[in-house]
Backbone:
């Protein structure tokens, strides 16, 4: 282990030696001589052959030569310490390399460099994680989770290279983003425009920014984009963003109200709800996304009913949507959405977009 540890250390200091050797070439020549000997030793270890004893002794002698003269009785214990330190250096180096590889693969396949706790990865595209795993406490749990993460990564790799068809994940009813309904100056997507799927959480700030970028860049005008609203759950009763579940229920209830209507008679309350959540502000200048999540459950429902009236809904329609929001039909839709997000699209964070036959993770940038 001493020769392998020496090779690792020599490799790490190689950059500094290269700089020094510009001014003192003899340092570089001496380093290359030792490095060549070290590499030969490592090569033999890889082939399961015995390493040259003289190189191992050279390393130990270089470290212990001063101790031998002054404190000869310390040579044996220090020799043991060198062996133990060598094992630790090799282990830490191997662990660092494996962790780096795992993080890079995770970032590429899942959009986060930390599978266990996505929100802690600063390298990830801006997104809202779908809930972090509870922190493991025992060494056995941590070891088991480490191997499980590798399984998550390898199972997600095929998703990055497969051809994604957005329309395979459309719900019935499907809400398409029609820019002309939200802004008279914008146009509807062409009939032959490619399909796209936009997975969002009403309370996620990254989803809000992504939606705004798509709206301003003309993405919705160039793609027939279906909204898949997924409120991120923390547990069976609580959501990551306080009232996301209520907004999602009103969204799907409004979609159900439109379902089966002639296109010219559709109200598009579902689309208008999401547009106000992501782009609107209160009279006091507070972003509606923040405002809606500052309310209690009952206040949020009352606020959404007020929005429906603002959009032109009649009293009967408001009551019908409110009733549908708590219906088994909406429960079923939310279960289907959860299955799509977790079991079919396999994502760790949203927003996630499917378009151009690819899965795009994180914030959409213009």
Residues:
């Amino acid at each position: 282990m001493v020769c392998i540890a020496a090779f690792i250390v020599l490799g790490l200091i190689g950059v500094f030696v290269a700089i020094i050797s510009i001014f003192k070439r003899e340092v570089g020549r001496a380093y290359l001589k030792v490095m060549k000997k070290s590499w030969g030793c490592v090569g033999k270890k890889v082939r399961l052959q015995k390493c040259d004893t003289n190189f191992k002794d050279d390393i130990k002698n270089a470290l212990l030569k001063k101790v031998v003269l002054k404190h000869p009785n310390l040579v044996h214990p220090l020799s043991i310490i060198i062996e133990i330190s060598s094992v630790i250096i090799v282990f830490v180096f191997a662990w660092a390399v494996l962790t780096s590889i795992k993080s890079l693969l995770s970032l590429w396949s899942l959009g986060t460099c930390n599978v266990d706790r996505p929100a802690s990865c600063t390298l990830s595209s801006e997104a809202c994680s779908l809930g972090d795993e509870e922190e493991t406490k025992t060494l056995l749990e941590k070891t088991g989770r480490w191997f499980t993460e590798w399984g998550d990564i390898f199972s997600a790799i095929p998703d990055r290279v497969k051809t994604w068809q957005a329309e395979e994940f459309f719900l019935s009813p499907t809400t398409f983003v029609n820019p002309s309904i939200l802004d008279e100056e914008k146009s509807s997507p062409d009939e032959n425009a490619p399909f796209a799927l936009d997975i969002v959480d009403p309370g996620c700030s990254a989803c809000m920014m992504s939606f705004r970028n798509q709206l301003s860049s003309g993405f919705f005008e160039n793609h027939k984009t279906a909204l898949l609203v997924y409120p991120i759950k923390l547990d069976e009763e609580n959501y990551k963003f306080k009232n996301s579940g209520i907004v999602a229920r009103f969204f799907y209830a409004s979609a159900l109200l439109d379902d089966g209507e002639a296109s010219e008679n559709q109200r598009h309350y579902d689309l208008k709800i999401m547009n106000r959540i992501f782009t609107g502000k209160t009279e006091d200048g507070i972003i509606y996304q923040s405002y809606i999540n500052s309310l209690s459950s009952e206040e949020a429902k009352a606020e959404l009913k007020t929005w429906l009236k603002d959009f032109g809904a009649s009293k009967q329609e408001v009551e019908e949507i409110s009733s549908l929001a708590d219906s088994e039909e909406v429960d079923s839709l939310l279960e289907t959405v959860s299955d799509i997000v977790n079991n079919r699209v396999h994502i760790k964070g949203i927003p996630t977009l499917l378009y151009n036959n690819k899965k795009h993770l994180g914030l959409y940038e213009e």
